Amino acid sequence: MPALIGHLAQLEASPSRGLTLPDGRNAFLVRVHGRVTAWLNLCPHQGMPLNLPEGDFLEAGGELIQCGMHGALFLPETGECVFGPCQGRFLQPLAISVDAEGKIYLASE
Questions:
Q1: Residue 10 has pLDDT above 80, yes or no
Q2: Are 21 and 5 in contact, with CB atoms under 8 Å apart?
Q3: CA distance 80 to 87
Q4: What is the domain extent for residue 48?
Q5: What is 14-26 written as a DSSP string?
Q6: Mean of pLDDT values over 8-23
Q7: In this model, does residue 108 exceed pLDDT 90?
Q8: Which of 40, 27, 30 is nearest to 10 (CA)?
Q9: Mean pLDDT over all residues of the chain?
Q10: Which of 9, 23, 37, 46 is 20 to 30 A removed from 102 (C-alpha atoms)?
Q11: pLDDT tens figures, 49-75
Q12: Secretion signal: which residues (predicted)?
């Protein structure tokens, strides 16, 4: 059964948000150009959390996911690192769905 992990309304004031999955792993949601994606909160460079000191996951322009530790930049559509020490590697995606009420669910694994 899919697990409820968030709501679109939580991404209105800030387009990124960290969360803890039901199994205890740390993850985050980002909303860029109206599309929501979910990722494990692990940089592929050294396995450290990505979030910036303020808890954000997006660079100042709000277009790319940024690693707060190394400054690596990732495409929010694919999780590919396009700048930094892990260039060409990918974030670990999480399969999600959004229902008509804006509820965000983690797909059953």
A1: yes
A2: yes
A3: 8
A4: 3-106
A5: SSEEEEE-TTS-E
A6: 93
A7: no
A8: 30
A9: 93
A10: 23
A11: 998 777 789 999 999 999 988 899 999
A12: none
> Distance (Å, rounded) from C-alpha 62 to C-alpha 47?
23
Give the strand order in the sheet containing 3-7: 3-7, 103-106, 96-98
List the beta strands (DSSP E) in 1-109.
Answer: 3-7, 16-20, 26-32, 35-40, 65-66, 73-74, 81-83, 93-94, 96-98, 103-106
The CATH number of residue 29's host domain is 2.102.10.10
Q: Under 8 Å CB-to-CB from 73, ≥6 apart: which residues? A: 59, 64, 65, 66, 67, 81, 82, 83, 84
- Give me the residues paired with residue 105 across strands: 4, 97
What is the domain count for the chain?
A: 1
